[in-house]
Amino acid sequence: MESILSALYRGQIQPDETIVPSHPEYRPLGRQIGAMKEQWSSRLDEEMYRELEEYFDLCDSMDSIHVEAAFIHGFKLGANMIFEVMSRREDLVSNAASGLSL
Question: Which contiguous run of DSSP H or E holds residue 49?
Fold first, then answer.
């Protein structure tokens, strides 16, 4: 079995491309966005709609940067939690050896 780090390095793990939120409002919001874009497409002239799409692209870029930062922050937070737990392992072992329940 290949290690997670090797798979990540080789580009075999791409969470940003495989994650689909399970929140119940996610898909209905996507459909609503699509419907609104269709309405704008039919009401705006070609140049104005192109500018609107550029605006959406800028918003998507900004959202991607934010999601990346949130991912990195969450990963670091999780790693620090592991460090904290592992650094206090002896507390757990000594409590278990003394007969105290954890």
Answer: helix 46-87
Distance from C-alpha of 82 to C-alpha of 34, rounded to nearest angstrom: 41
Do 102 and 92 meet the contact criterion of CB atoms below 8 Å apart? yes
Q: Is 77 helix (H, G, I), strand (E, B) or coil?
A: helix
Three-state DSSP class for 10? coil
- Per the listing, tokens 């870029």 go with 61
Q: Are 43 and 52 in contact (CB under 8 A)?
A: no
Cβ atoms of 41 and 49 closer than 8 Å? yes
The overall pTM is greater than 0.70: no
CA 18 to each of CA 13, 49, 55, 74: distance values in angstroms, whole numbers, following the listed order: 9, 30, 25, 18
Judge whether residue 100 has pLDDT over 60.
Answer: no
The closest alpha carbon to 67, from 24, 23, 34, 19, belongs to 19
Residue 87 has pLDDT above 60, yes or no: yes
